[in-house]
Amino acid sequence: LAFWYPLLLSFSGATCSPRAFTCNNKHCILQSWRCDGHDDCGDGSDEINCPTRIPTTCSSDYFTCDNFRCVSKKWVCDGDNDCGDGSDEQNCSEYSGSKQQCLMRVVYSTITTCPGLCHDDEFQCQTDGFCIPEKWECDGHADCEDGSDEHNSCLPRTCSSSFFQCNNKICIPSSWVCDGENDCRDMSDEQNCPTPPFSCPSGQWLCPTDMVCIELHKLCDGQRDCPNGADESPLCNEDDCQLNNGGCSDGCIQGPFGAQCTCPPGFQLLNDSKTCEDINECLIPGFCSQLCYNERGSFRCYCSDGYFLEPDGRTCKVADQLAAVLLVTKRSQIVANHIYTNPPLIRPVISGSAIVTVDFDRVTSRMYYADASTKQIWSVFSTGLMVPESIAVDWVGRNLYWTDSVMENIEVSTLDGRFRKVLLTKNITSPRGLVLDPRNHTNVMFWSDWGKNPRIERAYMDGTARKAILTTKVYWPNGLALDYSTRRLYFADAYLKYIDYSVSVVWNETQVLHLPLSVWVETRYWTERGVFRAGKEDGSDFAVLAQELQYRPNDIHVYSPAKQESCNNTCMQFNGGCRINECLNPSVHKCAQICTDTLTGYYCSCNPGYRLMPDGKACEDINECESTPSVCSQLCDNTAGSYFCKCAPGYIREADGRTCRQNSGINPYLLYSNRYYIRNQTTDGSQMSIVLQGLSKVVALDFDHSEKRLYWLDVGVGKMERMSLDGTGREILANTNVVGAEGIAVDWVGRYVCEYVF
């Protein structure tokens, strides 16, 4: 059982675009609808003062309508009112049973721009009347489906000195050559490019001259693992790591060319080949299928509501797979495909004349779709049917958004068609895709415009804070899709023939792409005279779900309750959000620690000693002992939200809580040597005494406070010695191999003595 609620697409109360007709009741309609025998305005003003129609003689491949229009014979009895008076759909014998079951075998493209509605700076394709930028005419590439933009009058194309001419004669900026992107569309700008230097992943060693990687543990193991045996050499018998750990910040192993620095898991060597740096796994696209939090030497993946983390610790899986449905519009029908059923369960949901786009509201299980033939947006209530989401339903604020390429604007109304408003109309020429993120404290919309200055833009859902987010290397931006879990915006460019996000191309095709687009979990779905899918990160797992369809699909969406996250509608809960302090209601703000109210909402923050997590609500303790090693002068213990400094035996903590000073009952003093003797002296210089004399050449000394012992190096006699500070217990620790020593240090914790040899 289904109920249809028409929401008329004509607009009132604003200035109509130059390509539209302004009715007496201030509605805007297509200029071509004037004097077509139909009351499109609703007040009959578009049929007033019409010139007397002279019978028209149409060419042999066109059909003459009762209102003397000429339409392609392909359009006769195709289920669409192309004449405007219905005469092309009368006396049709190729319909069976219901008017919605068309058996016609003609294949034709989706509803396109009417003849005569292209801008002055656009070229109109001959067969379908489609408008493309004027500069694409005679650019060496057929942008019209019939190739009419590359006609016989086109002159040979040349490029200016600052441009590169592709093999297909397209001109692109020279700076785009060899940048890793297929700007020419035939890959000629990425041919004969310099090969990037070969490198091995972290934890492996590059065999010189062979471009072969081997594991580090195979170095100096007595086996020739590199083709030229370079992993083995006489230096393998040395121990270069013994001296200052080979200069390495972390691990050190002996390699065929000396000390080889290594890093623990989760770290990588910097360009100096000595220092280890944490690997931020979260910067690797697709490392976590949804949300990622980087940790020192590690990472943590987690999932959005409605998903659970798989045992691999990286992949999120939807909890209710049976609720996921793929919805495709194909001109006269909306078809549903339950994604996870095997074999696929495909069934028609809605029939119409020229269905071009669809969206779904999870709150009421109501579907919204636009029919270009009836010039209406319809609302259909379907009982017990889970169907897709996303042209422009705001399931939180209960509003409906849409773009209009003829009126050149973006509009919004409530879901029942009331309170209609034009949000954006300036500098919009050919708006195409539109997606929303109405979740709490996001409230943004994105749209594509493939007009004179093609771009992708964003704004708040009230039309404010408008900003172009992509203006370069985009020509014909079409379908948009939001991956809510990873906060990525995917888009399709029908001119460049790829699906992209941010700056990384993840799918590339050679066909002309209409490319309505949807993203679900790890997969992207799109249409082009068929329905296709591929991995959203790298284009893997490509599959054809449907092909050789009678009509080219116009729109595609995946619906699942997990996609339309349940959020609080503060407008309905708190009197439109006026003068509301969300921080007074913990169930609304859900801040773990601190909530700060603002004019337009609120934001969460954390107490001192904590950092805000990526979800913008939870707080995590900061380990000051690791993040700020000098926070304590000696020992440091991390505590929840803070830290505690401790001192070694014989020291007490100063009033600042961080600095330790000696607590021996005597004033601090200095120990120093002038080659022949060792002296001590108070720090204020008031007292001085000789501790030991008669030495040869003392170059370094240190003191062990726990045992009150003095250590020194006398390179004149080649000895390392120690004694108590009172002059007793003098003993020799080493009397060889200290001739070149220059430093000495006591490890008072591990009870070791280290010497530095130059």
Automatic annotation (TrEMBL):
Gene Ontology annotations for the cellular component aspect, listed alphabetically: apical plasma membrane; clathrin-coated pit; receptor complex
Superkingdom to which the source organism belongs: Eukaryota
Protein name: EGF-like domain-containing protein
Disulfide bridge positions per record: C16-C28, C23-C41, C35-C50, C58-C70, C65-C83, C77-C92, C159-C171, C166-C184, C178-C193
Gene Ontology terms describing biological process: receptor-mediated endocytosis
Keyword Ribonucleoprotein among record annotations: no
Keyword Membrane: yes
Similarity-based family: Belongs to the LDLR family.
InterPro entries named in the record: 6-blade_b-propeller_TolB-like, cEGF, EGF, EGF-like_Ca-bd_dom, EGF-type_Asp/Asn_hydroxyl_site, EGF_Ca-bd_CS, Growth_fac_rcpt_cys_sf, LDL_receptor-like_sf
Any one Gene Ontology molecular-function term assigned to this protein's record: calcium ion binding
